[in-house]
Specification:
- By secondary structure, the protein is of the alpha/beta class.
- The protein has two domains: 2-135 and 291-344, Periplasmic binding protein-like II (D-Maltodextrin-Binding Protein, domain 2, 3-Layer(aba) Sandwich), CATH 3.40.190.10; 137-288 and 354-411, Periplasmic binding protein-like II (D-Maltodextrin-Binding Protein, domain 2, 3-Layer(aba) Sandwich), CATH 3.40.190.
- Helices cover 49% and strands 14% of the residues.
- The chain has 18 helices and ten strands.
- The strands form two sheets. Strands 1, 2, 3, 6, 7, 8, 9 and 10 form an eight-stranded mixed beta sheet that branches. A two-stranded antiparallel sheet has the order 4-5.
- A hairpin with a 3-residue loop joins β4 (122-123) and β5 (127-128).
Length: 413
Amino acid sequence: MKKMLSMMLFACLMHSAHAQKTTITVAAYPAVDDIVKAALKEWQKKNPNVEVKVVSREYGDHHTAMTTALATSTGLPDVMTIEYGYLGRFSQSGGLEDLDKPPYKAQEHASKLVGFALAQGRTVANGLTAMPTDIGPGAMFYRKDILEKAKVKESELTQSWDAFVQSGEKIKKASGAYLVAHARDVKDIVIRSGIPEGHGVYFDDKGQSVISTSARFKRGFEMAQKIRVQGLDAKINPWSNEWGESLKRGNVTVQMMGAWLGGHLQNWLAPNTSGLWRSTVLPEGIATSWGGTFYAIPKNAKNKDIAWDLIKYLTLDRQQQQLAFEKYNAFPALLEAQSGAFFDQPVAFLGGQKARPEWRATALQIKPTMVFKSDSVAEEIVNAELDLVLNKNKSIDQALKDAHRLVQRRAGR
């Protein structure tokens, strides 16, 4: 009898322990899913009764699924990963928690994070809807071997956009290599320079399009047109198979993106080119961001308190932020994680260059800009009009006027 009672008691205790175990879901995309999984080992030491299920989808599929989940309030995770390009749409959906309000009180941690990234996660109407975890300080990666062949100095690429184009002419003549993969790459950088505080790339602080009124758009279109007319771009879209091959083979000299591109080049885009690449600042010393990752909590999530505890660990723990950078090239949004021996170590893939301090310096210079719900729509329209300029000789002034009109119409819906 005693043995039976003991067994029953043990079974009850086991059932009780099992019943108290909470499962939360994190929705992510590569390689954020790996960062979360790697972090769980340490986090679960303090949260042994929490099981974390990481649901991973490819980048596009993930954001499509999250768009549907927010619209229907079904299939929502406890922690939602959002990439910068989708931030405006998601933040202004009304479906995410305001992390500035109790019980979260994220504003208490504001001074610990990069200011521009925190501003990107905040909207006037909905407060702070997403916590930044990694950022993409803009950088220019270039093939040192091609520059040497063309007798072009790094300073010629960076001093001005006109000098950048002139360098491309020398490079094309000496090596046959294109300056950039696509003329659009240059436009994308130029339109992100000189944005007034409180404004976004495409909209002012009142949500009105600035496409036809801002000089940066006209200049961006003009520089892109100049590059295309002079045959300096390969007419290749980023992330295509052809783009990857061009980076491997040295058909393209320069690629401007976030600092994280160095890790992608090393790990899967062009691992055979180790030692040939270098990193430097963008032309005219433009300090801008390119991408970044954020964590959010849906309003209809089931385990918000635990979700917030995990988000705080992923974004505010110095060791975790540094490990994510060292292992996955996720440049930390946490300021105190932007130091340490790792930052001063030479990067073998970049020929031993100590590139990280320069990325950090760029990150500290980036000014806060706002994101808007219709940013992705505006980007699509602007790119379509640029294509008409590049391929059909449409006038730049008319293209910008048409883009402005279309964006205003679509954004007003």
